[in-house]
Each structure stands twice: as structure tokens, then as C-alpha cells.
Predict the structure.
Amino acid sequence: MKETQTMNNNSKDTETTERISGSEAVIKCLLAEGVTTLYGYPGGAIMPVYDELYKYQDQIHHVLTRHEQGATHAAQGYARISGKVGVAMATSGPGATNLITGIADAQIDSTPLVCITGQVGSHLLGSDAFQETDIVGISTPVTKWNCQITKASQIPGAIAKAFYIARSGRPGPVLIDITKDAQFEEFDFKYEKCKGVRSYKPVPKTDETALKAAAELINSAKKPLIVWGQGVILGKAEEEFKAVIEKAGIPSAWTILGASAIPTSHPLNVGMVGMHGNYAPNVLTNQCDVLIAIGMRFDDRVTGNLATYAKQAKIVHFEIDPAEIDKNVKTDIAVLGNSKDSLKKLLPLLNTNSHTDWHQEFKDLYQIEYDKVIKNDLHPTKEGLTMGEVLKEINIQTEGKAAIVSDVGQHQMIACRYAEFNISKSNITSGGLGTMGFALPAAIGAKMAAPDREVVMIAGDGGYQMNIQELGTIFQQKVPVKIVVLNNEFLGMVRQWQQLFFDKRYASTEMVNPDFVAIAKGYHIDAKKVSERQDLKAAVKEMIDCDGPYFLEVRVEKEGNVFPMIPTGASVSDIRLS
Amino acid sequence: MENKQYTVSIYTENNIGLLNRISAIFQRRHMNIESLNTSPSEIESVSRFTIVVNITESQMKKIIGQIEKQVEVIKAFYHTDDEIIYQESCLFKIKSELLFDERQIQNIIKESNARIVTVNKQFFVLEKSGRKEEIDLLYRELNVFGIMQFTRSGRVAVTKDEMKISTLLETFQH
């Protein structure tokens, strides 16, 4: 390897240029971006890069997942708990297409991801070569940015740009497709971090006039309601957010992805909005006079029928992505910018307030929800374990410090509703895409990014089996995640809809399941199954006390339903308690 | 809200795949693109898309947001027909004998301000630039005699108002 010294024109710094292959450059770029862990699966078209990974294994840890989809979800879990960029790698063709679900999930949930795929040699592009697929074309609608590289010299610039784009502004997934000849080709390598892209403005300028107008409106409100989303977490604005709501005394509700930005027990935290959210914030959305949306996007699962959503209220929207303004809900005042900066500037403009009477309305409605739903979920007296009591037990045993990685379905709604969060970035779940199979691999990534955190994965018997092969990754990597499967032998959420809206025609929702404990044990993971209430506490304790990975299957009631519920097309205030 | 014809001008980096990214924004929302043209713009290395769509203004505004969200899009605008100067271009390939047998064709060519690009023994090629209606009219008139081939370009347009792309580009520089 020949090394030459060159002078950088802009500074006196001496920079080293070295002649290396494109594939070694990939690794050096990842190292320069601070990547220490990545998830992937090798194959023909990415083999040169894997050969380099072998040489650099003391500096960068490649985690072999059992499926490329697992690699993307693991990278997502890694990113969601740490705020860093997750990295996934795959070969061309099926390797690349298997990444797509995770990429789409990261796109809709604004998760920073860099995916690197191998591609057939550039002379074969378009020839229907073995394992050739147009992954740039396929991934275009679900990536923030993507590109194909056919020359080694393009690699450093593209990877630098990829990381910059993935993590800046509203984060998202990017994909870089590198032809095999570009991986082999040698060139003079030099890495410079990307500091900007001419056509891309990650954070729009905050308009001070809009900010003042927003403050005035909030100050004049008699019944203000805040709905916050993941923007608070992504903007690292938890402290600023807390200061704002505490000064102005505003009841604050969260979307699924916003959960954990402030503790569950915070007196101003009035719970979750949306389809299976809490009763009070949903009903009172249609009674508030000013609705303040912070870093959220008015998803249909949050708003219910838009024609009847908060029509009486003035809407203030704090948002980093200009395309979200007026997309679903027409705003009266839009404050563009990063949540941290906007909230910091908003704080001194706000009057101190307490809104005591207004808070009482939330408390009254909470009591109704408690009596009709929560009590039965958390303290059931009838036979059959509920999902809620499992969550309650996990809260107790982890002292509310666990990161909860949930899959998609009934257990997810229960987890979001009842998990106790005291640390930000603790609710890792597939919100926008609703990807069953997300949790198991995401939990791997989360635990590896935050080894000091207790990471508890919660899945249903359906979603668990969608990526159950990742038990192999947990076994090989010795990742001490706690795996909880709430088994009701049904695709529970679909069954609930069939019960409520399709006259109990349970079409293809009943599951005949394998011996989950035996499967876990097959991977040498400690495992247990409980089906009786009296055994739950000890089983959860054994799981939490275990130093390694642990699998706990809980047989829950077969036909339990999640309430409250806003039926599709109904108004948020028509939320049903039974 | 009623559908209206809008002309979208998009200034972009000249990168592979961007056409796909932009057309996907319309496709995903089940919107038909009436015409699409891409070309270099007045600024070096900056491309310009001109797209014609029939949608509501509220849809149009959201589409502009989605287009501008793309990393390699510099700026997108939308215009109604009265805010722009626009043209389309078309080519007709017609049997040469008709030029002599049907004297009326010569009159049509003259009156329509169409231009003969080439003539040989077999065929001649007629070029016409203008508004869509003018081209439609010429097509109807010539179709009576038989057209061997016909093709029409997408709309190209410039705005009556200034477009401050160069100044905008400077603000993007870090």
C-alpha cells in the first residue's frame, strides 16, 4: 500500500491519501463516521467488502443476522435507542430486496439508516445478470436519498453524503448501491466529512414572527392541549419541552413515537392520543381551544376522521419538515425549525399558567377510563392472564427503566399504553409502517447500542414468528435481550377487528403454534412458559434477573380486546371504551 | 375544490434517478402527468423539469412540498397558465405526394406557421411550435389527408415573473 502526503488547500492540516480498493474505502469511510457496529448478510456482489470487514474486525463489529430484513430492523433498533445512524449491509438481488421493509419502516418513522448493497459488475448492469436487481429504482420511494456507485473514487463522497443526509434535518434511510468492480478498483483514498449539500436545507429557518404569534395564541388559550411526537426526541429537545409544558401548565399527550420523551408519571403527561390511546386526550382534542402539535405529523391513526378533528381549535404546528405543514390538518400558525431551538426560543415568550380546571377534565375522564378499561387490564379478577398485567409486572421488576421494544398488534398497543417510561428513547416500535416482525431484530440492535439498558422485547405470537430466525443472531452474539411473547394463539388485532366489524368471521387469524420454549432452548436461550396468574411475578423476575438472553412465553386470554378504540373513520371524540 | 391545469417548474441537480423520484411522487398519489420535459436550465449544472398536471390547488401545494423535500431538488414552483409563457413543439411526417396532390395542404402549412424541416421523394416533415390548441387544430386539419407519424413534445414554459434561483443557490452554500 503506497501512502503519499498531500496538503489540503483550505488549511494547514496534512491529509493522507492512500491507494486502496473501493471495498477497503467503504470500511474506512464507516470508521471515519464513527461506526462501530453494523448488521448484514454477505453474498456474491458484496464479498470484497466482507473481505475487508474480516481484516478490520478488531475495529468494526459486523453482526451476521439471519435475514437481511433482520439487519435493517436491528440497525433501526440501534439508531432509535442511541440517536446514532444505524448501518445495514447486504448483497445484490434478494439480499437488497430483503432490506426494503426495514428501509420503508425507517422512512416513515424518520430513523437514520445507511444501507449499503453490493451490485453486479457495472458491465453487467441491465443484463438480468445473476442476482441483479434494480435496487436504486426499487428503494427510491422509501429512501430519503439513494445512489449507485460504479467507480471506486465515488465511494468516499457518496458515503459522506449518505451519513450527512441520514442524520440531518428530519432523519431517514439512505441506500448506496456499489457495483462489484467499484469495490475491487483501486484509487487514491481521502475522506472528508460532508458539511452540506447545495440543494438540501436540513433545518428550515425559524420565523420569529410566527414564533411570537404562536406564543401569544398559547398564552391566550383557556384550554390548550399539546400533542407531541418523535420530533421532540429526534431534536434532543426533551429538556426544552419539559420546561415549556411546565411553565405554561399545558396538558400534553403523545403519539406512539413520541412516548418516553418525558416520564409517564409526569403530572402534565395526559397519555397517548390515537386509535388505542387514552380516553381523555382523544375526547378533549375536540374540546381544546388551541392544539399545539410538536414534532408530529397528524397520522390518520392519531386523528381519526379529519373532518371532525379539533375543528373548534386553533392549530399551532412546530415542525422541522415543511411538507408536513397543512398536509393533513390545516394549521393556523406553523413554526418551522428544529424542536430544540424553537422550544428554547418559545419558553421566555410564554406566560406561567396552571390551567387547573382544564386539568380536572383530564382527570375526570381518566377516572372513567380507569374504571371501565385500565382496572380490568392491570388488575384483572377473571380467569386468563391479560397483556396489561404482564406489562405491569415488567414495569415493577425493571423499576420502569427498561427500553420496551414492541412488535405490531394488540400487545404493541398494550405496551405503549401501560409501559412505564422514565428514560427517553425507551419506546422502540414500528409506528408508521406497522411492521410485524420488527421487534426481535430491533431489540438486538437496541441492546447492542445500549448494553447498560434493560431491553425487553414484547411481541405477539404472530409477529414473533415473522423474524423468529433472529434467535440465531441472539445466540451467536450472546445479546442479553429479554424476549416476551404474549401468546393468544391469534393474530389478535385482526381478530379483534373481525369480531367487531366482520361478525366474528375469524378468517385466517387463528394460529397453531409450535413449542416456543423448545425453539428458544434449541438456540440455548433460557426459556419458560407461564399461563397462570400466580406464576407471572416469579417468571418475570427470573427473566429480569437472568444475565443472558431469556425467553418468556405468557399464555394470555385468547380473545382479549384492546380498548379504548376509535373505529376507522370515526371521530377522536367517538372513542369507544368497550 | 376544482381541478385546474398547473405547470410545475422544478430546478434540480443533474443526477441519475431524480426523474424517477419526482415522477413517483405523482404516481404514488394516483395523479396523471399530462406532460413532462427535462432540460438544462439557465444555470450551469442545474436541470429544469417542466410538468403539467390537472389537480386541485390544495393537492398542488402538497405536491410542491413533497418535491422540495427531495434532497436534490433546489426549488419547485407551480403556475397557472396566465402566469407563464409556454409552448409545445410537434413533428408530422406526411407523404410527399400529398404536398402536390392536395393543394390545400400548402395553405394549411402557410396559415399555421408550421415549418417544413425536410422533404424527400417519399415524405416531408413538418414542425410546428405553439400552444396545445394550435397543434391540436393543425393535427385535425392534416389528419384528413393522412399522417404517417406524429409526435408532440411536453410543454416548456418560462414565467412572466423573475425566478431567483441563482440567489437561492447562494443561500444553500455553506
About this structure: Strands of chain B lie at 4-13, 33-40, 46-55, 73-79, 84-95, 115-119, 123-130, 149-152, 156-159.
